[in-house]
Write a structure and sequence with these properties.
The structure holds three protein chains of three kinds. Chain A is about 75% helix and about 0% strand. Chain A has 15 helices and two strands. Chain A has helices at about 5-10, 10-35, 45-50, 55-70, 75-90, 95-120, 125-145, 155-165, 175-190, 195-205, 205-210, 215-245, 255-265, 275-295, 300-325, and strands at about 170, 175. In chain A, strands 1-2 form a two-stranded antiparallel sheet. The longest helix of chain A has 27 residues, at about 215-245. Chain A starts with a helix and ends in a 6-residue tail after the last helix. Chain B is α/β, with parallel strands linked by helices. Chain B has two domains: about 75-85 and about 95-215 and about 355-380, Response regulator (Rossmann fold, 3-Layer(aba) Sandwich); about 215-350, 3-Layer(aba) Sandwich (Rossmann fold). Chain B is built from 13 helices and twelve strands. Chain B has helices spanning about 5-25, 40-45, 85-90, 125-140, 150-165, 180-190, 205, 215-230, 250-265, 280-295, 310-320, 335-340, 355-370; strands at about 115-120, 140-145, 170, 195, 210-215, 235-240, 270-275, 300-305, 325-330, 345-350, 375-380, 385. Chain B has a six-stranded parallel beta sheet, sandwiched between helices. Chain B has a six-stranded mixed beta sheet with strand order 7-6-8-9-10-12, with helices on both faces. In chain B, strand 4 (about 195), helix 7 (about 205) and strand 5 form a beta-alpha-beta unit. Chain C is mainly α. Chain C has helices at about 1-10, 10-25, 35-60, 65-110, 115-135, 145-150, 160-180, 180-190, 190-195, 200-230, 235-250, 260-280, 285-315, and strands spanning about 140, 230. In chain C, strands 1-2 form a two-stranded antiparallel ribbon. The chains are: A mainly alpha, B alpha/beta, C mainly alpha. Chains in contact: A-B, A-C, B-C.
């Protein structure tokens, strides 16, 4: 690297702070956990904790793309999850492959519409995804007459569907964690190695600069929503498999929770900064924090307060530190 | 016939008649009285043949007399584990002091407009509305449903709309038992007769309504507590997964259990109770954490919901290989009944969504036809579903 | 072209008129003075938060915690009424909202946390605090006199509650457009560095916007709870999405510098009238979701279309563009 390039490269401190904050918080929580309960650092407990937030991780990896390209959040994620799940369940009589494909396509269709509206028509992402989530939620209730749809366990496809969430690799590693690992690796490779990653970074950080540099910004943003809906569809199918029923209320709450995880993980809402590792870290923080508070025996409402407080503390402190290190757009 | 043959034949005939009688009694559900409209002869509206989707009779009623215990002078001063602390909530409306009620309009039920104000949208309530519609069609009543998205501002607006439309009767499922009171007062002042349903308003509101119908949440959970205690051998630690805050099952499905167990099984200990939003993943994590934290001390888990929350509980229990944990829940969805059949869930309460919707419409139809309403509260029958009788309630209503 | 510009500026009023016209023509019992009064009364709960949120959006920030502020405000007003009376309870509620707004303002101006994130955090905390205050149940008062007064009919379509909320909101609209302070907000949002050079302190205005939003939401929640005689832990949740949608549909831009409290009010009325009309039909919940979603989507797409046209023309010589 030339001397010039080294001079304009951000100081090591600035680059490490987002990663450091996630790692330090996790270490802090782990230490606290060890103090609170000697059963915290056991494999079963850790595995339970991780599996409880695995679906959140899958969805958050998708939302990462949306936030990374500077579009805040995808608020239609809960509806996409419910939609893909209920379509998959109702298509089970055509076989498991057709069912999964149908569910995936249903979710992706919504993602394509989101991508066109926000990427090409430049609609406000928060309001548009709120609106599309609302319309999809209404469509689900209308198409299925307000009822839920059960996978038929008499069909072999139905039994496979119900087993999707509960399967495990080598009998020990849950399938959801494997899916999360695959998605995370794929997302990381796209963001760091592929051209898409570089172009998305520029699009998120400085949209007009990217546009004038010849980056196809509209396609980049559209693909971000496509990726988010892809992850949400997979998460939705797995969540429906867990709940053993396709229903309109599946996936509720995942929109804000995913944004919380993404932001905790150091992805800046201004766009262009962050990575998959951070998102996984943010998801882990949420899971470990809940685990700790449960082991302490706190009341659910107090747990929520602590979660909110930790969230603000982490983001606030790292914001302050970044500002001290010279960056003014945290 | 020869004397001896007659005796044998007679015995067989008697046995056959007994078998038929038992069979018929078994067919009418669990012995609950089937509701017959007393004006049936007069107006020929038969409803006893109506069935809900699970094959059970649609119109069922628990006609046990209402005899609450004496009200303590200050219930709130008593500890929470004392059943009398919850007297005002549990026995709301039982005292039956009513303001003067409007008289039914002329012309009978046919063609009258009834507005149903539902508090939200949910598959249970879809089944509820199906049951209501079956009875409305039978009476020839025009039914309109408005849904309030769990917001009492919208429900207040819809109450005003019902008044504006000059509905002949309103069936209201309150968003909130307390916030509905001014709305009931408004309906009363505008001369609109009201039947409340599913969630019982507090005493102050009950004087404005004709009556309330719905499931007996407190009673059901006391029944469930007795079954639970028996399965736990009257000792051991247990945890409760609570319903969502802001609604009445948050209290009834928690303290109904706690206060009853305090009385009948004082050796059983409440280890923890959490509200998980009834979500499967959250409940799964909470249950795993309970198992980690309490270990062998945890012997039973009570759940306010037998579908999403119960799945979370079952997954966590299966993973921790603690199938010994006794599990009971509030039912009865298909997921819950499947779990009962599979043996992972020991007992659930019975709550027929369609019956919940049909009963107020039946009372409304009869009232519009001129029959006075005699009781302040009408409860649906209580029953605990276990592995032995779960197949009678399939296919599930929702 | 000029008519198109007028259309763009006043589109929310036209949309409101269109929704009312369509509903009046087709929905049974919609077109009546009583129903108009119902809509005004029901919408008044959302007017004050909408006004407050307009200020926040005008300075280029966003506030997600105002729904929780409403809930907490309502809870405090009801919970403290027995000991402090209505004035005391409502005053404490407003103070609490002020405090939450101050916290939000501090996080955004001092700690420089992105407002979406900061208010997401405060929303979680305040919601949980409200639940703890009421132990998960509903708080109530048994004295209905204030309720009868607030919701009684004054003029045919207005009840005192609606009058108070509309009056306050209009006062805030006047504050935003006709006073120096109000124009300060607009300048800070449009161009913070110019505002700095003009002698304003942008941070004060940003913090002030959050404080205003918090206090107004708490006041709105308190008034609503006083009229309902009850407060429950989920009372502000529905308001959150409705008010955010209303303010943006009304034309206030998330980038800041442009906004109108009156337009936000009109958008609130439009959304409430939409739900009212659909209930007149007895339409299912799916109709509410699809209708409100479609309206939001339509408005947002139209906004994007207008912005794109403006962008295409930007840089062109304005004096040659008579129609601009």
């Amino acid at each position: 690297m030339t001397a010039e390039a080294r001079a304009v490269r951000p100081a090591l401190r600035m680059r490490l702070i987002p990663a450091a904050r996630v790692v330090s918080v996790i270490l802090l929580l782990a230490a606290a956990g060890r103090l609170i309960s000697d059963r915290f650092l056991t494999i079963p407990n850790l595995l339970n904790t991780v599996q409880a937030v695995a679906l959140l991780g899958i969805v958050a990896v998708g939302v990462l793309f949306v936030t990374y390209t500077g579009n805040y959040a995808d608020l239609s994620v809960p509806s996409i999850m419910a939609f893909s799940g209920i379509v998959a369940v109702s298509a089970l009589r055509f076989g498991i492959v057709a069912s999964l494909a149908a569910g995936l396509c249903a979710g992706l269709a919504v993602g394509v519409v989101n991508g066109i509206a926000v990427g090409y028509a430049r609609a406000n992402p928060i309001i548009w995804t709120l609106a599309s989530g609302s319309v999809v939620g209404g469509a689900i209730r209308w198409l299925y007459s307000g009822s839920q749809v059960y996978p038929d366990s008499q069909l072999p496809a139905g039994r496979i569907f119900l087993a999707l969430y509960r399967a495990s690799l080598f009998g020990a590693i849950p399938a959801t964690l494997c899916v999360l690992a695959l998605l995370a690796v794929a997302a990381h490779l796209i963001m760091t190695r592929a051209a898409y990653g570089r172009e998305a970074k520029l699009t998120g950080a400085a949209y007009d600069v990217a546009r004038m540099s010849g980056v196809n910004v509209k396609l980049i943003v559209a693909l971000a929503f496509f990726a988010s809906s892809f992850a949400a569809s997979i998460g939705g199918i797995l969540l429906t498999s867990l709940n053993k029923v396709g229903a309109a209320y599946i996936g509720g709450g995942y929109d804000f929770l995913a944004v919380t995880a993404v932001v905790l993980g150091g992805v800046s809402l201004a766009g262009g900064r962050g990575g998959v590792a951070g998102v996984l870290g943010g998801v882990l923080i949420i899971g470990v924090l809940r685990n700790l508070l449960m082991l302490l025996g706190t009341d659910t409402f107090v747990q929520d307060i602590v979660q909110g407080a930790v969230f603000i503390l982490v983001v606030g402190i790292s914001s302050l530190m970044l500002r001290r290190a010279g960056r003014d757009d945290a | 016939m020869v004397h001896g043959e007659w005796r044998v034949t007679g015995r067989f005939a008697l046995l056959a008649m007994l078998a038929a009688a038992v069979g018929l009694a078994g067919c009418s559900g669990h012995g609950a009285p089937v509701l017959r409209g007393p004006d049936e002869a007069a107006v020929s509206i038969g409803t006893s043949d109506l069935r809900s989707a699970d094959g059970q009779p649609l119109l069922i009623l628990d006609d046990a007399p209402l005899r609450p215990p004496a009200r303590p002078p200050d219930p709130k001063a008593l500890p929470e584990e004392d059943a009398l602390h919850w007297w005002d909530i549990e026995y709301a409306g039982w005292r039956g002091e009513k303001a003067a009620q409007p008289r039914p309009p002329a012309g009978g039920a046919r063609g009258k407009r009834v507005v149903c104000l539902r508090f939200m949208d949910h598959p249970y309530l879809t089944a509820y509305s199906n049951g209501m519609r079956k009875v409305a069609d039978r009476y020839g009543i025009r039914l309109k449903t408005m849904i309030a998205n769990n917001d009492f501002n919208i429900q207040s607006q819809q109450v005003d709309q019902a008044i504006n439309e000059r509905a002949d009767l309103v069936i209201i499922l309150p968003v909130d038992a307390i916030a509905v009171v001014p709305m009931l007062e408004r309906l009363y002042q505008n001369g609109v007769p009201v039947i409340a349903s599913n969630l019982i308003p507090v005493d102050e509101g009950m004087k404005y309504v004709l009556c309330w119908t719905g499931p007996d949440d407190w009673g059901q959970f006391r029944m469930l507590a007795r079954d639970f205690a028996r399965r736990m051998n009257y000792e051991g630690g247990y945890c409760i997964v609570r319903h969502m805050p802001g609604g009445s099952p948050f209290f009834s499905r928690t303290f109904g259990m706690i206060t009853e167990l305090k009385k009948i099984a004082p050796k059983m200990r409440l280890l923890d109770m959490q509200a998980t939003g009834l979500q499967a993943e959250r409940t799964m994590q909470v249950t795993s954490d309970w198992i980690t934290r309490f270990g062998p001390e945890l012997k039973g888990i009570v759940s306010a919901d037998d579908s999403g929350a119960q799945i979370g509980i079952d997954e966590a229990v299966a993973k921790a290989r603690r199938e010994d944990i006794v599990r009971v829940a509030a039912g009865n969805s298909k997921v819950g009944m499947d779990a009962v059949k599979a043996g992972t869930l020991d007992a659930i309460t019975y709550q027929s969504a369609e019956a919940d919707g049909a009963l107020p419409m039946k009372l409304a139809g009869d009232w519009l036809n001129g029959k006075p309403i005699t009781r302040p509260v009408y409860y649906l029958p209580k029953h605990i579903i276990t592995k032995e009788d779960v197949s009678r309630y399939m296919p599930a209503q929702w | 072209m000029r008519s198109l510009r007028l259309f763009a500026r006043y589109r929310i009023y036209l949309l409101l008129a269109a929704v009312c016209a369509i509903m009046a023509a087709s929905a049974p019992n919609f077109a009546s003075a009583f129903n108009a009064g119902t809509i005004l009364k029901s919408a008044s709960a959302h007017l004050l938060p909408a006004a407050g949120l307009t200020f926040v959006l005008v300075v280029g920030q966003i506030d997600l915690s105002f729904g929780a502020c409403m809930t907490l405000g309502g809870m405090l007003a009801i919970g403290l009424e027995p000991s402090l009376g209505w004035p005391g309870g409502i005053a404490v509620a407003v103070l609490a909202g002020l405090g939450i707004g101050l916290a939000n303002g501090a996080l955004v101006t001092v700690a420089r946390v992105n407002s979406f994130i900061a208010t997401l955090g405060t929303m979680i905390i305040v919601q949980a605090a409200a639940k703890i205050y009421c132990h998960g149940g509903t708080l109530a008062v048994h004295d209905f006199r204030l309720h009868h007064w607030l919701d009684g009919a004054l003029l045919t379509v207005l009840c005192p509650r609606a009058l108070i909320c509309i009056g306050l909101a209009l006062a805030l609209a006047a504050l935003l457009h006709w006073t120096t302070i109000g124009r300060g907000f607009l300048l800070v949002g449009a161009n913070p560095s110019t505002a700095w050079f003009a002698g304003l302190r942008p941070d004060r205005y940003v913090a002030g916007a959050f404080v205003l939003c918090g206090a107004l939401s708490a006041l709105g929640g308190a008034i609503f709870a006083a009229s309902a005689c009850a407060a429950n832990p989920t009372m502000g949740d529905n308001s959150l999405m409705l008010v955010i949608a209303a303010v943006i549909i009304g034309g206030t831009s998330m980038k800041g510098g442009r906004g109108s409290v009156a337009a936000s009010m009109a958008a609130v009325f439009m959304l409430v009238a939409l739900i009212d009309g659909l209930s007149c039909f007895g339409a299912g919940f799916e109709a509410q979701l699809i209708a409100s979603g479609s309206v939001m989507a339509g408005v947002v797409l139209y906004d994007a279309f207008v912005a794109r046209r403006h962008e295409l023309r930007r840089g062109a010589r304005p004096h040659l563009m008579r129609s601009g």
